């Protein structure tokens, strides 16, 4: 699928915007048994193993509801663990709908991710402008809150 998207871009048949991958809205894509990839504004890797669900990166606050819906179509296993690989807006803001429908997952992150989230609050207006330019989305607004990691090292 990514090859088809690259061909469309190369041939001028699709928007080459950083936020248009041509794969949004297609749900969790099966990579291997128990392993999926959810393409979106912040890709999410999903693992289902022994009756539990694990997310690596959790997407953006703008797509959290859709992520939850698509993951629930793919797996009914409870979310037990999530990892925030890093702190940009598309990677650590998608767990809230899972918490509304089940117990809070254990969330792991590098200690710098927590510091980064805290810095976003202090520099919110500045970071909003940077994010709007980076993602070519002039109306994008950053969230002021997030689900704090359970553990960070």
Structure write-up:
The mean pLDDT is 82. The chain is α/β, with parallel strands linked by helices and 153 residues long. It has a seven-stranded mixed beta sheet with strand order 1-2-3-4-5-6-7. The chain contains five helices and seven strands, in the order αββββαβαβααβ. Strand 1 and strand 2 form a beta hairpin.
Task: Kindly summarize this structure in a few lines.
The protein is an alpha/beta fold and 153 residues long. The protein contains five helices and seven strands, in the order αββββαβαβααβ.
- Element order: H for helix, E for strand: HEEEEHEHEHHE
Tertiary shape:
flat
Counting helices, strands and paired strands, the structural category is alpha/beta
Query: Span between N and C termini?
Result: 36 Å
Task: Please list the strands of the largest sheet in the order they lie side by side.
Answer: 1-2-3-4-5-6-7
CATH architecture: 4-Layer Sandwich
CATH class: Alpha Beta
């Amino acid at each position: 699928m990514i090859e088809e998207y690259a061909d469309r871009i190369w041939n001028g048949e699709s928007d080459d915007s950083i936020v248009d991958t041509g794969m949004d809205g297609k749900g969790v894509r099966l990579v291997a048994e128990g392993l999926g990839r959810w393409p979106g504004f912040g890709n999410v890797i999903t693992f289902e193993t022994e009756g539990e669900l694990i997310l690596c990166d959790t997407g953006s606050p703008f797509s959290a509801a859709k992520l939850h819906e698509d993951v629930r179509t793919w797996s009914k296993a409870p979310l037990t663990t999530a990892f925030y690989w890093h702190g940009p807006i598309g990677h650590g803001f998608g767990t809230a709908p899972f918490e509304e429908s089940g117990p809070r997952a254990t969330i792991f992150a590098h200690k710098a991710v927590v510091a980064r989230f805290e810095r976003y609050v202090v520099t919110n207006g500045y970071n909003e402008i940077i994010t709007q330019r980076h993602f070519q989305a002039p109306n994008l607004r950053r969230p002021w809150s997030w689900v704090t990691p359970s553990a960070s090292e």
